[in-house]
Backbone:
């Protein structure tokens, strides 16, 4: 199979960053692209959701969120006991790995589309639902038995944050308008999607390169964790999806979601709620290692695993 | 020149806070609670103890917050910031004496 072009854009950004090129994507463009991508992903999911009975989604949603919530609870003791991280750092890293990355999901979907592999369009609903439980659990883990937790602030940070507003907003607009209603918008939101995702990934490559310095502070344990945790979570995702009877594409995407680590919503929420956690550790691991790992190795591996498991369970 | 046009200045304190963009709203709310009548913020970048803060993406952005107020209010805000944020956040805080017009605003 030829290389997925959007990943090559990411690698170009990574190389440019490592070579200290003067290439810089303006912050305004980064903001604009992320608004576009979030809305487009939401709209696409909404259109698919309109073709679906919501009641049928309830059980898979509960199972998927329930198992997703276990991830930070597994990661936390590993980070604290084996990794010797402080309680705040362990809780913050666990929250990052329990939550999900929208861009990793988008690349996973592009990978499947490239292979001509179908997947359940309503996977976006799970993307939204998986974003926040881990953040709540992370704050709880950090604050357990230590007085007042700033849960209210985290709730506001997450639910009023632009990623949830735009994803849920797009989902609702797509759901209410339906495929026919959105037709006039297709050219902007669907046809342009992959090209703009490519430019966004170019920037993500630059940002990932700028976090490489943080990794020196992270230590060998965290570097290993940043590769092993997504493989473990991805396997759990593929198994869960097979048990729920999702298609191969759906299973690969759920594995990708579980394996991905948040680097936008989680850092913002943890910075406010668990300020004593060192953001360089969690962002360095999530963005410097796990994000590139998932893009280049993880997604094809989760897809392979999903196709192996199909029909076995 | 007409004497009635001479500007009349009053001494006030200017508290400047440079910190992570993610806590701008918290600092602004604290300042208001402690008696500030307003603030002005602008995007900032630079490097220091917390490494390069280049503003290239939202989480590496800094803001510079200027608060014009009476000396006692500036002291209260500075003491509060020191106790609340210095340990865990990138934050620089300094005070200057300035002359302002329309002192009733501050």
Residues:
């Amino acid at each position: 199979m030829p290389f997925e072009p959007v990943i090559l854009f990411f690698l170009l950004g990574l190389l440019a960053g490592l070579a200290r090129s003067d290439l810089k994507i303006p912050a305004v463009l980064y903001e604009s692209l992320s608004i576009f991508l979030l809305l487009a992903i939401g709209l696409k999911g909404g259109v698919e959701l309109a073709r679906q009975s919501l009641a049928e989604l309830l059980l898979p949603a509960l199972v998927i969120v329930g198992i997703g919530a276990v991830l930070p609870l597994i990661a936390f003791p590993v980070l604290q006991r084996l990794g010797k991280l402080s309680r705040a750092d362990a809780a913050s890293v666990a929250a990052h790995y329990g939550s999900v990355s929208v861009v990793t999901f988008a690349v996973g979907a592009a990978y499947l589309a490239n292979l001509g592999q179908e997947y359940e369009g309503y996977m976006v609903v799970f993307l939204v639902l998986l974003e926040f439980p881990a953040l709540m659990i992370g704050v709880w883990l950090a604050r357990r038995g230590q007085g007042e937790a700033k849960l209210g602030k985290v709730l506001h940070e997450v639910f009023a944050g632009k990623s949830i507003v735009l994803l849920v907003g797009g989902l609702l607009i797509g759901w209410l308008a339906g495929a026919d209603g959105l037709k006039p918008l297709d050219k902007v939101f669907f046809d342009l999607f992959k090209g703009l995702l490519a430019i966004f990934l170019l920037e993500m490559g630059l940002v990932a390169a700028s976090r490489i310095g943080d990794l020196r502070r992270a230590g060998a344990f965290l570097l290993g964790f940043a590769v092993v945790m997504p493989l473990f979570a991805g396997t759990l995702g593929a198994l869960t999806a097979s048990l729920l009877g999702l298609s191969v594409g759906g299973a690969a995407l759920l594995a990708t979601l579980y394996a991905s680590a948040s680097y936008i919503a989680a850092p913002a929420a943890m910075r406010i709620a668990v300020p004593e956690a060192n953001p360089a550790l969690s962002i360095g691991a999530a963005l410097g290692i796990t994000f590139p790992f998932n893009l280049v190795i993880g997604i094809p591996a989760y897809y392979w695993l999903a196709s192996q498991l199909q029909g076995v369970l | 020149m007409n004497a009635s046009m001479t500007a009349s200045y009053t001494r006030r304190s200017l508290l400047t806070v440079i910190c992570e963009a993610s806590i701008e709203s918290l600092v602004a709310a604290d300042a208001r609670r402690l008696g500030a009548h307003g603030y002005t913020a602008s995007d900032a970048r630079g490097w220091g103890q917390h490494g390069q803060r280049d503003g290239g993406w939202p989480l590496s952005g800094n803001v510079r917050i200027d608060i014009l107020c009476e000396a006692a209010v500036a002291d209260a805000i500075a003491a509060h910031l020191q106790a609340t944020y210095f340990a865990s956040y990138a934050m620089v805080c300094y005070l200057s004496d300035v002359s302002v017009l329309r002192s009733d605003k501050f």
Q: What stands out?
A: Chain B has two helices and six strands. The two ends of chain B are 28 Å apart (CA to CA). The first strand of chain B starts at residue 10 and ends at 20.
